[in-house]
Design a protein that fits this description.
446 residues, Aspartate Aminotransferase, domain 1
Length: 446
Amino acid sequence: MSNDILSTTSSIDLQFDKEHLWHPYTSMANALPAFGVIAADGVELELQNGTKLIDGTSSWWACVHGYSHPKIVAAMQQQTAQLSHVMFGGITHRPAVELARMLIEMTSPRLTKVFLADSGSIAVEVAMKMALQYWQGRAKPNKQKILTVKNGYHGDTFAAMSVCDPEGGMHTMFGELVTKQLFAPAPQSRFDDNFNPEELNEIATLFEDNHQQIAALLLEPIMQGAGGMRFYHPEYLAALRKLCDKYDVLLILDEIATGFGRTGKLFAYEHSNIEADILCLGKALTGGYISLAATMCSDEVAQGVSDSPAGVFMHGPTFMANPLACSAAIASLELIRENRWQEQVSSIEAQLKRELADAIDYPNVKDVRVLGAVGVLEMSATLNTAELQQQFVDLGVWIRPFSNLIYIMPPYCVTPSQLSKLTHAMKTVARQVSLPNDASPFISHG
C-alpha cells in the first residue's frame, strides 16, 4: 500500500468518497456533496483547493477550543508515545484517574461515580442501563420504562433511539425493535419568557399514573438540540426534579451537547439550580479532538446497581477509558477551568443577539433564538441542505443547516469579526433561501 495514502499533500478522491463512504444521514444512491478538508486551525477549516472556511458548527458542537490547540495536541502526542491504549478490565492508568477526579470536582456534589465510554449515544445507553439495574437492586424490577419529552434527541443506538422524538425521530422505521417509552409534551415556555406552570399538567399525570413502572426521566436540560434547537424555561426543569423526587424516579440529564459552557453556564442544569442522579457528558469533553463520553451517577445509584442480581454493572466497552482520549479530555477541561470560556460565551451571546435580531423581519424566518454560544434562525419550511451548504461555502463559512434550522454553535475562541462573517452569511442565505420540503430532519448526536 502506497505511503501516498497517508500523505497530507495528496488530494482527496471525492468521487471514491461519494461511491463508497457513508456519511451521516445520507443516501448512497443520492449522496450529499462532501467537501474535502485537509487541515484546520483555530476556527478555520482548509479545503483541498485552498479555500478557508470559518467553522460555525464546532464540528457538531464539540470543538469548543477550536482546532489544533497546542495544549490538547501536546497532551495527545505525549500520551501516544507513552500509552495510547490499554484494556480497562483489571487495569487502570493516570489519565482515567485524573479525568474522573476533574469531572467529580466540576459537576454537582451528588455525582461521585464515573463511567468512561466511547461516544455520546453510548453514554445514554449506559445511563439507561444504570437506571434499570438500580431498581433491580432496590427490589423494584418492574420499573423499566423511561419517561422523556417530545422533540428530544439522545443518539442513534437502539436504546437511545427509544427516547428520541417519537414522530420526528427514528421509531417508525425500526418498528418493534425499538422499545416503547413514555412521552410527555415538549416544554413550551421559552427560556427568556414567563413560565406557564400549566404545561406541567400532562407530565405530572404521566408520573402519577405510571411511576411504579418508570425507572427514570431522561431529557436534555434547557436546550433541546437536534430536536429543534429549542431553549426552554429553567423553572420547567426545576419542577421535573421535584416530580422525580415525589414519585421516586431517577433523573437522567443528557448534557452531551450543552455541557462545558455552551449555554452560558458550565452545565445547563445550573440554570435551574438542580442536580441529576445520572449525568451524560460527551462532545466538548475532549474539546472535540477524539471520541469520549462519561456517564456519572450518585453513590446511591452506584450502590443500587451493585445490589442488583448481577452484582456488577453490565457494560464494558473495548475502548473504555482510552488513555489517549482521557489525556485529551484532561487538557480540554484544564482549558475550561481557566474560565476564559465565561467571557467568551457571554460576548458571543451578546453579539449574536445584536446581529441576528433583525432577521425576524425576513419573510421566511419564523423565529430567532439565542442562548449562550448558540444562534438559531428557524425558517418557515424544511431546507435543502445540499443547496445551502454550497451557498455557505461560497460565502466563506461552514454552516450545516438541518430540518428548517439555520444555526451556529461556533468555537468559543471565535473572534468578533469571524462571528460577524458567520451571522452575515446566516442572514444572507435566510433572506434569499427557497424552501423545498425534501431534506432529512436528522443530525448526529454522538
